Structures are given as C-alpha cells and as structure tokens.
Amino acid sequence: MGRTIYYTAMSVDGFIADPQGSLGWLDGLDHDPDGLLGWTAFDASVGSFVMGRATFDWLLSGPLADPTTPWPHRQPGWVLTHRPVERVPEGARLTFTDAPLGEVVAAAREAAAEADVWIAGGGVLASALARAGLVDEIWLSVAPVALGGGAPVLPAAAPLRLVQEGRNGDFAALRYVVGPQPS
Ligand SMILES: NC(=O)c1ccc[n+]([C@@H]2O[C@H](COP(=O)([O-])OP(=O)(O)OC[C@H]3O[C@@H](n4cnc5c(N)ncnc54)[C@H](OP(=O)(O)O)[C@@H]3O)[C@@H](O)[C@H]2O)c1
Questions:
Q1: Are 156 and 178 in contact (CB under 8 A)?
Q2: Cα radius of gyration (the chain)
Q3: In this predicted structure, what is the pLDDT of residue 182?
Q4: What is residue 183's predicted lDDT score, i.e. its pLDDT?
Q5: Nearest CA owner, ligand 1 atom 19
Q6: How many Cβ atoms sit within 10 Å of the Cβ of residue 98?
Q7: Which secondary structure element, helix H or strand E, spans residue 140, and what is its range?
Q8: Is the CB of 105 under 6 A from ligand 1?
Q9: For every one of its 183 residues, what pLDDT tens digit does the chain have, with 9 covering 90 and above?
Q10: SS3 letters across 60-114
C-alpha cells in the first residue's frame, strides 16, 4: 500500500497562501522539478489525490481561469466540499464529496493501488486528515519568504519526525513522517 503524502510549498512562517489567497510569492524562485523532493518524481509516484474545496476554487479562479487551459493532473481526485460545483474542468477525473474522510481516503488508496496518495491541501483539509490519522508523510518546500499571515500549512497539532532534508534551488526541502519519535 502506498503512503498518503501532504506535499506543498510554504513560507518560512508557515503559510501556503498569502492573506489575499495568492501564491504569487512563489513566482521567480528557483526550484528544480528533478531535484530533491521535486515534482517530477513525486507526480510519477502518485496514483490519486484528495483536495479541499478552497484549493479547487483557487485553481479554477487562478491557473485554470481560462477554460481552455487543460486540467493538469492525470490521476483521479476527490474534492472535499459541502457545496455544489459550477464548473468541472474538461479532462478532470474528479469526485466531489462530503463523505467521511476515512471513506474518501480508502477510495483514493484503492484507486492508487500500490502508488501514493497526494494530499494536495490546503491546510484545512490536511489538518482534518492528520487529526484522523490519515496522513503518513508531509513534504515541504520552504520558500525564503515571510508572509506575515495567510492560510496556515497545518492548523492542527501533530507530532512529526524529520526523515530527509536538503536544498532545492531557493527552497529548503523537508520530509517528515507523521507520528511520535520512536522510543
Ligand atoms: N502553497 C501550496 O503549495 C498550496 C497548496 C494547496 C493550496 N494552497 C492554497 O491554500 C488555500 C486554500 O487552503 P485552505 O486550507 O484555506 O482550504 P482547503 O483545505 O483547500 O479547503 C477547505 C474547504 O474544503 C472543504 N472541506 C474540508 N474538509 C471537508 C470535509 N471533511 N467534508 C467536506 N468538505 C470539506 C470545505 O469547503 P466547503 O464547506 O466550503 O465546501 C472547507 O472550507 C488556497 O489559497 C490555495 O491556493 C497552496
């Protein structure tokens, strides 16, 4: 069985979006997709994903605002929401659901088979999953930027173990396993 991995970029003060909901602070920073904890190998290892509604809405109003822009993910995804969705991008294989998180992750795991499940964020969903014991690892690309506020990366208490660290371009690359230190 694969892992469930919350993979995201954050500021040094722990935000994944600025107070206006923008990710513009990532623009122009150097990050090698083939480098440490880079997107290329991660994406290849992922068989499905789960995403919060705010992150989905941000995609639709930002990178996918032009309806001719292709949906960027080949894997099936589950979007957690309590509300109907107005537009589903062409080519997206998405299930919109408010089912219990354990059921959603079980479905995503089944679709991924031996591959990993990407927890695409945001922090609200990732923390609910962490509280439910449904996050195995957290991979962080830490940008050399302080935002002073915004959407927190993980607004929940969780014990973490650092298992890999290094540098990718302008970013610190950190991999954590969720759980207490081994005694
Ligand atoms: N830096 C990065 O790499 C990165 C990655 C991902 C996201 N982001 C940014 O993060 C921001 C959004 O993050 P966020 O933490 O505020 O929100 P989020 O986790 O993306 O979405 C939260 C919403 O998901 C729905 N939801 C969550 N748990 C649910 C459950 N158990 N059942 C049903 N619905 C559930 C609810 O929406 P409703 O009740 O309204 O339907 C909730 O308000 C965006 O600005 C996005 O751009 C950044």
A1: no
A2: 16
A3: 77
A4: 74
A5: 122
A6: 11
A7: strand 137-143
A8: no
A9: 899 999 999 999 999 999 999 999 999 999 999 999 999 999 999 999 999 999 999 999 999 999 899 999 999 999 999 999 999 999 999 999 999 999 999 999 999 999 999 999 999 999 999 999 999 999 999 999 999 999 999 999 999 999 999 999 999 999 999 988 777
A10: HHCCCCCCCCCCCCCCCEEEECCCCCCCCCCCCCEEEECCCHHHHHHHHHHHHCC
Q: Tell me, using a 6 A CB cutoff, whether residue 9 lines ligand 1.
A: yes
Residue 110 CB less than 6 A away from ligand 1? no
Q: For residue 173, which amino acid is it?
A: A
Domains of the chain: 34-91+101-110+128-159 (3.40.430.10)
Q: Please give the Cα distance from 175 to 93 (Å, whole number).
A: 28
Nearest to 6 by CA among 92, 131, 113, 99: 131
Tokens of 126: 């990732």
